[in-house]
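quick one before i forget lol
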Amino acid sequence: DDCEDSEALAHPGLAEVCGDGLDNNCDGVPDPCGVSATFYGEASGDKAGGAVGAGGDINGDGYNDIVIGASWQNGTLLDDGVAVGAVYVAEGPISGAYNLATATGKIEGSADQDRLGSSVTIVGDIDGDNYDDILAGAFGADIGGAMRRVRPTCSAVRSAASSALTRRRR
């Protein structure tokens, strides 16, 4: 039996879809996926949120952090940088409205059209330093695209070229 005959996306056994306002699986809870934070990019058209990675503790404080890609972000480290892209680090816990201009860490692409942040993920501690690591894609990099391990080391804007070689020491 369809719990809502007028709605094709609602019937027992269907997976719940977060944010659609429907009781997709007919369990009596219309949308159990409460949103606790909303992220805003630095500029219109920067494609912030086109790639998001979560579920790891980048800074070792015991809270899960979020990394957000903005592959069309125009750089601040290069004069008139166009679509260098950026990866933002938002340290948890996070709630409410969050402007990426105030992010704890920001890594920018190192050349025009790099589009760093076209993909992002938190991969766990791959280098054994007790911090989870970030992988960030830059599909427009001159070498035919690139995936880099990056480590934001402080509250500052860094170039992906230098961040890839920098580690935080305990």
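fyi Residues 153-159, 161-170 have pLDDT under 50 and may be disordered.
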